[in-house]
Amino acid sequence: MQNRYFTTPIYYVNDKPHIGHAYTSLSVDILKRYFSCLGQNSFFLTGTDEHGQKVEKAASDASIDPQKFTDSVSQNFREMSGLLNLSNDDFIRTTEERHKVSVQALWKILEDNDDIYLSKYSGWYSVRDEAFVADNEIEEREGKKYNSFGSELSWVEEESYFFRLSKWQDALIEFYDNNPDFIVPKSRSNEVRKFVESGLKDLSVSRTTFNWGIKVPSNNDHIVYVWLDALTNYISALDFPNTNSDNYQKYWPGIHVVGKDIIRFHAVFWPAFLMAAKLEPPKQIVAHGWWTNEGQKISKSTGNVIDPIELIESYGLDEVRYFLFREVPFGNDGDFSREAIKNRINGELANNFGNLIQRVLSFIVKNLEHNIELTDNNKNFKTFLDIMDLEETLNSHILDYRFDEYLKEIFLFLNNLNNYVDKQAPWALKKTDPDMMKEVLSNICICIIRLTQYLHPIMPQKTIKILELFNLDESFKSFSKIEEILDMKSLKINQPEPLFQKIE
Ligand code: MSP
After folding, report:
1. Which of 88, 215, 248, 435 has the greatest number of CB atoms lying within 10 Å of its CB?
2. pLDDT over 70 for what percent of the chain?
């Protein structure tokens, strides 16, 4: 069986978690849960990026020792994982010993392979992005220098080890050619390719003017550049340097889900480091877009950062999950607005999905003493067969990270089912044709259960509640369990409560 490995970026601990962090983590959570519903195994890693100049500065601004500082902020990210109901299998911190060992081992391999040499760096650096910035990428405003993300640059001049990135230019192009799906979406892939084709310069991979990092094993005056340190987390968590370990063997190479701003690190530097170390490059880099807030770029200085905890308190976790992945195609930028989330919750979750369940199950509770017989006709009911067939389409949407299309397909069927209820009018059939009424209700229930299974990866809590209304326990979230349900003679229905609160 195929084992998949999905990672989120590890988050900088200079700050509180915000919507961007939540978005990446939730996307990987959906993938993990989806494959688990299919009965397939995957490993989900997230964690925190705790070294570097930016974190050292945040700690010193707070007058706290960097280790204490990172301990406390990393904890916020762990708590966020709980609040978002993430199903991660591991949480890695770059200050852990297992990671330090792994980074130093990778460094030694690169040095032994003559891919690292000592020289001097002089140039511009973005502390916010922890990135060296080439001259042709610098923008100048009012006498200050910025990179293309608008981060202010500072001048750095110090002895530094360099990684021979230029040496890997052709190998990278060849790798992209042989793996056309390495970077998704395609538009991003072209961007990366252009950057590599324009000529790669060797990359500075150590710093000497501050201390907060992992020491270069052969020269303790240097600390490892924070991106070489951070990227290595993806294999530290699989027990690297022990490449014979179960986890490494089972899960590497992995799929990295990242925001569009950090593609270059993942799609250029990281595969080059791995190739130089004679390790397999990652399987895929999936880049998502950026959220704005009511049309405005999200930034700490504007004070418009969206706090995921506040969002969940206002709208509910599964409602937020639904909104984020229904509203915007995954690779695109998207705008968060109160009006947009309200419309999705009221129109799609409350009026369409919630209302269907509410009216059908309440009717069964009231008129059939909580009991619905499952007729054999389910197996021939055209809409149900179409819904069963949907599995293949949905699978292709997930494999291509089209979460919005995945949800669109399901909600089309929910709409159809609402129309079917209106047309068949079980409340009228009750008097004229009670057998037909039972058949109609049985058809609807079986369709709701199937669609609920499909929705589980996106809305794990609500869907479990829905299964419980049918007296089906959590194990019935597995897609294959539908057969077992079809073989049941009847289902006992619990009195439903409204599932989604309308937003005023
Ligand atoms: N520490 C690095 C990643 C190292 S991975 C080896 C980092 N951390 S971060 O905390 O700054 O950002 C983490 C993720 O949040 C990135 O994928 C970034 O794209 C994402 N987002 C930050 N702001 C965002 C939005 N406004 N919208 C969507 N995602 C955004 O980079």
Report:
1. 88
2. 100
Q: Supply the pLDDT for residue 412.
A: 98
| 49 within ligand 1 shell (Cβ under 6 A) | yes
pLDDT confidence of 477, banded at 50, 70, 90?
very high
240 Cβ inside 6 Å of ligand 1: no
* The pair of three-digit structure tokens given for residue 280, joined into one six-digit string: 């397999």
Atom 21 of ligand 1 has which residue's CA nearest to it?
Answer: 20
285 lines ligand 1 (CB under 6 A): no
Q: In the structure encoding, which two tokens stand for residue 408, read together?
A: 């669109």
Ligand 1: which residue has its CA nearest to atom 18?
259
Which residue carries 């992209």 as its tokens? 176
Counting every residue written for the chain, the total comes to 504
Dist. CA 199–CA 486, nearest whole Å: 60
Work out the average pLDDT over 125-130. 90
Contact in structure between 446 and 431 (CB atoms under 8 Å): no
Does residue 300 register a pLDDT over 90? no
327 vs 346: CA distance, rounded Å:
14
- Determine if ligand 1 sits within 6 Å of the CB of residue 306: no
Question: Which residues 6+ apart lie within 8 Å of 159 measured at CB?
Answer: 118, 119, 120, 121, 208, 221, 222
Q: What is the DSSP string of 49-91?
A: E--SHHHHHHHHHTTS-HHHHHHHHHHHHHHHHHHTT---SEE
- Alpha helix (H) residue ranges in 85-232: 97-112, 169-178, 186-197, 226-231
pLDDT of residue 16: 82
When the pLDDT of each residue in the chain is averaged and rounded to a whole number, the result is 95
What single-letter amino acid sits at 397? H
pLDDT at residue 260, rounded to an integer: 95
Edge-to-edge strand list for the sheet holding 203-204: 131-133, 116-126, 154-163, 203-204
Does 379 score more than 80 pLDDT?
no
Reported confidence tier of residue 318, pLDDT bands at 50, 70, 90? very high
Q: Is 426 in the pocket of ligand 1 (CB under 6 A)?
A: no
Q: Please state, in angstroms and rounded to a whole number, the distance separating the CA atoms of residues 288 and 188.
A: 10
Tell me if 499 sits within 8 A of 316, measured CB to CB.
no
CA atoms within 13 A on the CB side of 75: 6
* 284-288 and 255-259 strand pairing: parallel
What share of residues in the chain are helix, strand, coil (percent, to 5)? Answer: 55, 15, 30
How, if at all, do strands 255-259 and 4-7 pair?
parallel
The protein residue with its alpha carbon nearest to ligand 1, atom 16, reads: 259
User: Left (φ > 0), alpha (ψ -120 to 50) or beta: where does 294 sit?
Assistant: left
Residue 423 binned pLDDT confidence (cut-offs 50, 70, 90)? very high
Q: What is the pTM of this model?
A: 0.96
